[in-house]
Amino acid sequence: MNSLSERKYVIVGVFLLVGLLYIARLFYIQIIDDSYKLDARNQAFRYVTEFPVRSYIYDRNKKLLVYNEAAYDLMVLPKNIKNLDTTDFCNLLGITKDVFIKKMKKAVQSPNSPRKQSVFEKQLSPKDYASIQERLYRFPGFFVQSRTLRKYPQKTAAHMLGYIGEASKEMTIKDPYYNEGDYLGISGIEKTYEKVLRGKKGMRIMMVDVNNREKGSYMNGLYDTVAIPGKPLTTTLDADLQAYAELLMQNKIGSVVAIEPQTGEILALVTSPTYDPNLLVGRDRNKNFAMLLADKEGNPLFNRSTMASYPPGSTFKLVMALIGLNEHVLTPNTRYPCARGYPPLGGHPKCHVHPSPQDLTGAIGTSCNSYFSYVFKSVIDDKKFNDTYKAYANWRDIVLSFRMGTKTGSDLANELNGNVPSIKYYDKVFGKGSWKASTVISLGIGQAEMGVTPLQNANLVTIIANKGWYYTPHIVKAIGGNPNDTLLARFKIKHYTKITDTSVFNSVILGMAKAVEGGTAGALKIEGIPYCAKTGTAQNPHGKDHSVFVAFAPKDNPKIAIGILIENAGFGSTWAGPIARLMMEKYLKGKITRPDLEKRMLEGDLIHKGKAAALKGEKKLSVPNKKNEKQQH
Amino acid sequence: MRNNNTSIFSNIDWITVLLYLVLVIIGWMNIYSAVYNEEHYIITDTTQKYGKQMVWIGAAFLLAIIILIIQEDFYTAFAYFIFGVILVANIAVPFLGREVKGSNSWFRFGEFGIQPAEFMKFATNLALAKFLSNQDIKIAHFKNTAIALLFIGVPLIIIMKLQNETGLAIVFVAFIFMLYREGLSVNFLLLGFLAVVLFLLALLINNIYLFAIISVLCAISTLFVRRNVKNLFLIATVGLIACGMVKGTSYVYEHMEPHQKIRIDVLLGRGVVDLKKEGYNVNQAKIAIGSGGFWGKGYLEGTQTKYNFVPEQDTDFIFCTVGEEWGFVGSSIIIILQLALIIRLIFMAERQRSPFSRIYGYGVASVLFFHLTVNVGMTIGLAPVIGIPLPFFSYGGSSLLSFTILLFIFVKLDSHRLQILR
């Protein structure tokens, strides 16, 4: 028996060995091998995205510009469809069987798949949704996903606000925050302030059982992230002024930009023709988009205020005067002759009839081409430099410091640079060393290759009104009610031009005041408010000249600076001037004292009249010019 | 001096009782977690499995006390009788009971069901102890070995063939450990071991190679023994038996039920295992346990078990809940607790003066060990899927009552270890 009792050790040994083996195996699958943990998560978790509410946008007076309206997408996950009563389902949706089959095909085929949820019916109205929702439980595989649609109660500022669209596949690769089909800002401030407006998506982890039924949130939501709603934007826009400007600009092609000089806040930003931003929302979006795209002449989707480059024309004479004075090649008393043109080059560039010779104030008042050609030549042939290249580079530097021909750095989407020709460019065109002031003389009157955007033009007026400085023009005043948000810090930095002697602005302002008192804008006075202005007529090789007008008011302590350009409208004082005048009066007085002028502007139709003229075989009208226009002499 | 017969609790091995209680209570809590239903969150709710298990636990405690009250010599005296009665019940159940999921092993009484096969274990243990404790019996004799194997084999075949319960039947193999302790020739164990190894190899390796390997091994072994006729004959015999086993394997395998074949294939990783079909159970069990990590997901926080990804998560696969919610730490502790109880039983068996008590004690340890090994083994992919419960853990009255009876008869016997030999 004794020897047999030794066998207990064998038995206990075997038992312990198995125990050890099992614990080792547990150690392997529970601690070393991670794949089971991943499998478990994939099986039992469903990650549900929580979309934050896209925030509202207001104007400077807390007027609502953009809000949201609920819409509902009917979604389908084909693999979950069970025992579908097609007839019943089609009746519920009010679609035919053919439509149903077509839509199902789309949901199953690439890029969709039976295992992927896709939109079956887009943006049901709240009414349709209510009736469908009640009976949807009978159709497993179909469910409703709520969406928000942007709504624009003021129906204005379409280009500035921009629109939102669905994220494409490429977009999701570029920024993994987005999933295909997520909404995001495509243009306007919907794009530039996308991150502020969208907020932050949240993620809920739901547990599901083996039959894919939801079983509550994982760990009571310990690992869930809450959707953080976007912060509302307060824009600098004055909705009333904007609406009034859009109204005045109806049936005209062009742009209006109004800026508050002390702050750089954009008060109005008009591109005409414009469209009701509500058109690009909802089920008819694609149809409307195509319609707007089809208007080749008006091109309403084109944002002229920041994307179109025009020769600055006569308004550039203001800059020439400033540079001349600053470089001491010009004094307010300098007089130059005019012989209906610039005499040294045989009357080119041409000019109109006016008293001659005259001093600087008079030249600004009458917008003398000859005078500023002289100024340009004296700047480029400046003895200080005794070198065309150095003088030109200096001139160009100063021009660029006015943010002309270079992006202002505003928070508006898609700003165009514009153009102030570089030395390299002229070397290429004329050959190195074989060009001089007289070769490019029309730069002095804001023509030639020079191109600026209406926004840059308005910013120029701001700089003159402020006598030498500006804040980067911007459209957002406060983020989430906070005007000191770090995103806005760059709009609080004062920028100065390269005009070192700021007293020179006084002479220019004097000239602009004279233009209103008895010059080119003499007919556009505002009672009780002396203001400064400069008319312009930007020559357009493609057709009738563009009507340009820049102004700021009041003369002292200016509250508003405006730049207006109307394509193919002729003299600045006929169309652009009156509109600027009406806007300034409206903004400063809140009422209009010249209803006759207002009526003329509202009724003026330069698009369709122009068309009629074109049909009569007159001068062909230009298409909106996106590129620089070359001056021909 | 106290009279041993006056108190039923005197001389009781409290370590064993304590281990038993701990395992039963942890088991109950685990069932609660495995089938947790938020609408019926009270653990005593008898409409739920955890509530029912509570009733069974109560019944088991009552039964344990009754067993301790009954005179210890009842078990020796009525060993054969009990064996006979339960054997008859097992034969009768396929004809009188109701079929549940293809199994003919259930007597049903309203809400509750009883599986007589579960009770065959302690009955067989009693009968074997009675037979082997006879002083005239030497197990080494071929005749006695055959009789002992009959005690095991008859219930095994009845349960397997009549009741269609392979899992419950195969448990009787566990008594081999007990027979070994009582003197069963080592050759039987080696032969059994050889059979298992060859069975696995024959399924994994081409039979021709296996024959070659056996021949080479036989040839090599002749170099290490004295080359007389007897030794050469022995080697040749073993070699031939081995070859026969290999040949037999394919025969046995071919005649297995398809689902049994699949379970073996899954275990050995033979062919392509479809994780959605035949490989589903084991894969899900491994995912549940593997995802538990070191500390586990926490009580009631298991997703794989609670949400039914693991099939049979309250009965045969109950260990998955342990692994998922208590992690490596918890599952190791459960294995250690189970082994502690088993080794405690062996320790107790060895201190018996009475061979009957010792043999019975080894039987209990063997059965518990077999259940533990196969049940846990199948959830972690080390044993084929055989539907047998984890002692004290799996949901079900029959198995809990059966383990309680099995264990407490020995606790009773042990409490009288100081008395005369039986």
Distance between the termini of chain B: 23 Å
The share of residues in helices of chain B is 55-70%
CATH topology of the domain at 239-615 in chain A, by name, is Beta-lactamase
Helix content of chain A: 25-40%
The proportion of strand residues of chain B reads under 5%
Give start-end ranges of low-pLDDT stretches of chain B. Answer: none
**Secondary-structure element order of chain B, as H and E?**
HHHHEEEHHHHHHHHHHHH
Mean pLDDT rating of chain A: 85
Structural class of chain A: alpha+beta
C-alpha end-to-end distance of chain A: 129 Å
Largest sheet of chain B: 3 strands, antiparallel
CATH A-level architecture of the domain at 239-615 in chain A? 3-Layer(aba) Sandwich
**Which structural class do you get from the secondary structure elements of chain B?**
mainly alpha
Assigned CATH superfamily of the domain at 239-615 in chain A:
DD-peptidase/beta-lactamase superfamily
Give me the number of helical elements of chain B: 16
From the alpha carbons, calculate the radius of gyration of chain A and give it in angstroms: 34 Å
Topology of this protein?
The complex is a heterodimer of chains A (633) and B (422).
Chain A: H1 2-5, H2 7-32, H3 35-44, E1 45-50, E2 57-58, E3 64-76, H4 86-93, H5 97-108, E4 118-124, H6 126-135, E5 142-151, H7 158-161, E6 164-166, H8 169-174, E7 183-185, H9 188-192, H10 194-198, E8 202-208, E9 214-217, E10 233-235, H11 239-248, E11 254-260, E12 265-272, H12 285-294, H13 304-307, H14 316-326, H15 360-366, H16 369-380, H17 388-401, H18 423-430, H19 454-465, E13 469-471, E14 476-479, E15 494-496, H20 504-518, E16 532-538, E17 546-553, E18 560-566, H21 576-589, H22 595-603, H23 608-615
Parallel strand pairs in A: 2-10
Antiparallel strand pairs in A: 1-8, 2-3, 3-4, 3-5, 6-7, 8-9, 10-14, 11-12, 11-18, 13-15, 16-17, 17-18
Helix pairs in contact in A: 11-21, 14-16, 14-20, 15-20
Chain B: H1 14-34, H2 49-69, H3 72-77, H4 79-96, E1 98-100, E2 103-109, E3 112-114, H5 116-133, H6 142-162, H7 166-170, H8 175-181, H9 186-204, H10 207-222, H11 229-254, H12 258-268, H13 280-290, H14 318-350, H15 355-379, H16 397-415
Antiparallel strand pairs in B: 1-2, 2-3
